[in-house]
Amino acid sequence: MRKAIFAGSFDPITNGHLDIIFRAAKLFDELQIGVLINPNKKGLFTLEERVELIEVCTKELNNIKVIEFQGLLVNYCKEHGIDTLVRGVRSEADVNYELQMAHMNKELNSDIETIFLPTNKQYSFVSSSLIKEVLNFGADVKNLVPEEVIWAIEKKTK
Q1: Range of the domain at 112
Q2: 41: annotated binding-site residue?
Q3: Which residues participate in catalysis according to the annotation?
Q4: What's the whole-model pTM score?
Q5: pLDDT tens digits for 81-118?
Q6: I need a labelling partner for 53 at 20 to 30 A (CA). Which of 19, 32, 83, 154 fits?
Q7: Does the annotation place 110 within a ligand binding site?
Q8: Distances (CA, A) of 103 to 14, 74, 96, 128
């Protein structure tokens, strides 16, 4: 059984993330979505809320498992028999950063492979950080995030 993980903070999950998830799900028997807290980013949703949003947005995929984790991703992979990391890339800057991470992960666990999926060009500028930034100014992001995220944002701001 081929197992992979796509990890990130997903705060909030965007249509770009979902594009990568749906495409990666076709490549593996099981795709885990690893949700983590990034201490360098200000959170919009709790960890539990993010897990729930991802589960709702991916409910039609029967080979998805949404998990939360802490610590080194390569350690989690080793403990759970995962040998492939899925990473989405939007730009040259993403490729450079992700390539460094892939080399470090390979150094830490030689059994780990990383595959890069280029984002759909319509989402090439979308990031969770940018979504949060424009939301602070009341921007309409309904074309950039799933409907469930819009509902969750509206619920939080009422």
Answers
A1: 3-157
A2: yes
A3: 17, 41, 90, 128
A4: 0.92
A5: 999 999 999 999 999 999 999 999 999 999 999 999 99
A6: 83
A7: no
A8: 27, 12, 11, 25
